[in-house]
Design goal:
eight-stranded parallel beta barrel; 14 helices; Enoyl-[acyl carrier protein] reductase II; Aldolase_TIM
Length: 319
């Protein structure tokens, strides 16, 4: 796995990004991934500004390598407060999602920050290009957590975006990637980086509860579901909570009813506090292939080795 535009943009050895996941991606995971040669992200979506400040400070002490913060923009007041903190702390890289890429991009870039925006469609990728972001993450609906209304899978999404988005915009693939072989597949379609969530959520440094990690080790194919689509498509584990939300969604419940039953407190209850039956666990389809809890460094090393082996194997093929 050699350096490319994504490595040059982030100042990393490898074009591997650990997704900024709520209740999983704290300073410990972010710094471990960065120290291993990737780009570690702190997930600010579940943090107050004061807590985020602590995570940034600890991350700076734990690594001299580049790291970033993911900012979810569905709450304008909270995201604005987070962005102000990132400007003050001079965080080098910021990923934004769930809002307009025009909102904070120029302000961050004037401060010397590299800005990346996450999208589920070509339409929104083109808006990112117009907004002048430094790179785009195109995320397929295999991903855990919140997804796009289009429900486009990663392979057709990456092919479509790379075909129609101007080539000068670097592209990172996300959704359903947990091995070096998967990275090789999206690179063949034109991606230059991979953002990986589920595999890094199930590492020693992930701040997810040990009980949640243990439960995820038992997850099989088909144990996640994209549900609450009227509220916002969300992929979650089909535990008791997930099944309840699916039944409620399938019954035709209103947005208000879904919101009342959903709530961030349930995500905290499942992922962070370890109530693996009654709490929500947002996780991707590839959880079925994540069968251990290694260190983040081990994951990065595996990804690189598997990628190199896959590329070498494909290089022997003819058609």
């Amino acid at each position: 796995m050699s350096a490319n535009r994504i490595c040059q943009l982030f100042g990393t050895k490898y074009p591997i990004v650990s997704g900024g996941m709520v209740f999983c991606s704290g300073w410990e995971l972010a710094s471990a991934v960065s120290n291993a040669g990737g780009l570690g992200l702190i997930g600010s979506g579940s943090m107050t500004t004061d807590i985020l400040k602590v995570h940034i400070a600890k991350c700076k002490k734990a690594t001299q390598k580049p790291f970033g913060v993911n900012v979810v923009m569905n709450d304008k007041a909270i995201s604005q407060a987070h962005i102000q903190l990132l400007l003050e702390e001079k965080v080098p890289i910021v990923f934004t999602s769930a809002g307009s890429p025009k909102l904070f991009t120029k302000e961050l870039q004037k401060n010397g920050t590299t800005v990346v925006h996450v999208v589920p469609s070509l339409k929104l990728a083109l808006k990112c290009f117009e907004a002048g972001v430094n790179a785009v993450v195109a995320e397929g609906f295999e991903a855990g957590g919140h997804n796009g209304l289009e429900e486009t899978a990663t392979l057709p999404l990456i092919h479509h975006v790379r075909t129609h988005m101007p080539k000068e915009m670097p592209l990172i693939a996300a959704g359903g990637i947990a091995s070096g072989r998967s990275i090789a597949a999206v690179f063949a379609l034109g991606a230059e980086g991979a953002q990986i969530g589920t595999r890094f959520a199930m590492t020693k440094e992930s701040s997810a509860s040990p009980k949640a990690k243990e439960r995820l080790l038992r997850a099989k194919e088909g144990d996640t579901w994209l549900t609450v689509k009227r509220l916002g498509p969300t992929r979650m584990l089909l535990n008791d909570f997930g099944k309840k939300m699916r039944e409620l969604s399938d019954s035709g419940a209103s947005k208000e009813e879904l919101a009342a039953a959903y709530g961030m407190h349930n995500t905290r209850r499942g992922l962070f506090e370890g109530d693996v039956d009654a709490g929500e666990i947002e996780i991707g389809q590839v959880v079925a292939d994540c069968n251990d809890i290694p260190s983040a460094e081990e994951v990065v090393q595996r990804l690189v080795q598997e990628f190199n082996e896959a590329v070498a194997q494909v290089g022997k093929l003819t058609m």
